[in-house]
Amino acid sequence: MQSAQQSGAALSALKTEMDEAADALTAGNLAHAAATVKSLLTKAPSEYRILQLAGTVALAQNQAAVAADYFRRALSVCRMPLDAARTLHGLGLALRTLNDLDAACEAFKRASHANKGNLTSQIEWAKTLGQIATTDIVNAPEKRAEAERILRDAMAGFPDDPRPPTELGITLLNDSRPTEALSLFNAVLAKAPGFAPAIFNRGISLTILGQADEAEKAFERALNLDPSIEGYYHFSNLHTFTLDDPWLDRFVRHADEPLQDSARIDVEFALAKAYEDIKDYEKAFDHLEIGNREKRKTIQYNVANDEIRVNQIIALSTPDFFDRFRGKVSSQISPIFILGMPRSGSTLLEQMLAAHPEINAGGELPYMLGVARRIGADWETRKEHFLSDDLAVINDLQQGSDIYTRLSANLHQDKYLFTD
Predict the structure, then answer these.
(1) Taking a C-beta distance cutoff of 8 angstroms, is the pair 338, 350 a contact?
(2) Considering the entire predicted model, what is its pTM?
(3) Cα–Cα distance, 216 to 193 (Å, whole number)
(4) Can you list the alpha helix ranges (DSSP code H) found in 44-63?
(5) Mind spelling out the 3-state secondary structure of 191-239?
(6) Partners of 417 in the beta sheet?
(7) With contact defined as beta carbons under 8 Å apart, do 365 and 408 qualify?
(8) DSSP calls for 89-117
(9) Each residue's pLDDT tens digit, 217-258
(10) pLDDT at 322 over 60
């Protein structure tokens, strides 16, 4: 039987190893941290602190599924609410990486309730709801409303922290409410003038509202304060580069740094725009090629599926089809649809229209895409039989019109016309 002295020595040795793994993780030495954690797990596989550390290391190594398993095991042996909050937060991050967004929301929600002072979990909960809203277009208003409630509660609980109002501003931007978002960012900067995320997103608001010069200044200031912000492409779209432009040199130096995938995509596309401005098209193409190659890794795409879908649309969209249903669906709104290829001037046209006092700028709204997918999925389920019942088709189209009207409500509440 092990003596108390021997037991104490064993626990002390474990603590030394845990500290070593934590220090390696902080220093970015993930290989050493993972090796130390592996050794610890063989000695104490059911120790909460070791399982929590194992999950944190796995998450840092982009092994989200492994991390989620460790966090779940840690929860099963956790006894303290504050520890549970920390583990649930890690689980939420892992599940979000795995694109299990509903489960991630639940984890962040539980983490927030387990520790009322856990502002970070509240913010991540709201951010994840926003991510759901980008894919679940039909239920997007409810998801964004819930995110807004969470963030306003966080603002009340942490009135001096700039993160909740900044995140709320981003939520409002995604809900096509740039004027409200701009007011929030301005309020944040009145208290925390150097908070780069608010400055950057203020630039996005100004861009949408057609204030390009002010937006460029905002992006420039944000990048000066925090060069790690993924805002190089936003800035490049508003900035005209010259051969001796100091920003071009900064872009090149930033591209030479070790970057995460999303940051690499951002700076490569920004450099492509910069070299296009100075008419060095060979370098512009090189950076476009790199940016597109990195972007392609993030997209699951099969051209054959698009070919089938487009051919189905062509076969359906006959003069007879439009004649059968023209005037059968009512609408109370008058959106101005702008169709154009990238870099064809569609954004400029929108800015010109939005300068009119009776027109709101909607930006590239995802609503019609969501409506079309919903109707298309219904028609695909019914196969060719869906066209045999005119009333059913009219009902489908009317529902689509009503959904689009509801989703775009923020854009036509105070003005009759809006752009999409």
Answers:
(1) yes
(2) 0.77
(3) 17
(4) 48-60
(5) HCCCCHHHHHHHHHHHHHCCCHHHHHHHHHHHHHHCCCCCCHHHHHHHC
(6) 334, 359
(7) yes
(8) HHHHHHHHHTT-HHHHHHHHHHHHHH-TT
(9) 999 999 999 999 999 999 999 999 999 999 999 999 999 999
(10) yes
CA 143 to CA 126: how far, in whole Å? 9
pLDDT at 6 over 70: no
At 321 the three-state DSSP class reads helix
Return the structure tokens found at 166.
Answer: 């900044």
Are 124 and 89 spatial neighbours (Cβ–Cβ below 8 Å)? yes
Question: Which residues, other chains included, contact 113 with Cβ-Cβ below 8 Å and sequence gap of 6+?
Answer: none
Amino acid at site 103: A
What six digits make up the tokens of 241?
A: 């580069």
Q: How far is CA 157 from CA 116, 117, 118, 160, 408, in A?
A: 9, 8, 10, 9, 31
Owner of token pair 């009119």: 356
Q: How far apart are CA 396 and CA 381, in angstroms?
A: 13
Least confident stretch, 24-38, 312-326, 402-416: 402-416
- Two tokens at 392? 């059913």
